[in-house]
Amino acid sequence: MDTEKIKNIKRILVGVDDSEDAQLAFRVAMNRAIEMNAALYITSILEKDEMNVYQILDADYIHKQIDKLNKHVKEYQKIAEEAGVREVHTITGQGDAGETIVKEIIPQVNPDLLIIGALAKEGIEKYFGSQAAYMAKYAPISVLVVR
């Protein structure tokens, strides 16, 4: 990546969950947004593979989980605004985190940079970082993987 492109970052997308790596990615994204005077877009994905079949089929359960996720992401927004990020937006999705961010969130937000944590919050993916690897491989933009 040439340095001119790095200087022209105006929109940063950061993926968050409750993992330590995602928390670090969020802090890095906030700092970069402040340094570059860039807008910060915070995203989190409701992953249905973490639910059992009864939960998936229960519309009320799904709506409650989405509401909970939206409130959680708004907490990140408040932290970023209080830290001095000039423009902060939130966006949530449902599905596989890596695929949803690459195929749905990035086209909606049109960011210049994606910042993500290296490790997932739980499950076998925690050890392989498969979501981060997927996004680094398939995202149409530069990806900063934080560990």
From TrEMBL:
Pfam families: Usp. CDD domains: USP-like. Residues 9-147 form the UspA domain. InterPro entries: Rossmann-like_a/b/a_fold, Universal_stress_UspA, UspA. SUPFAM superfamilies: Adenine nucleotide alpha hydrolases-like. Belongs to the universal stress protein A family. This is Universal stress protein. It comes from Candidatus Ligilactobacillus excrementigallinarum.
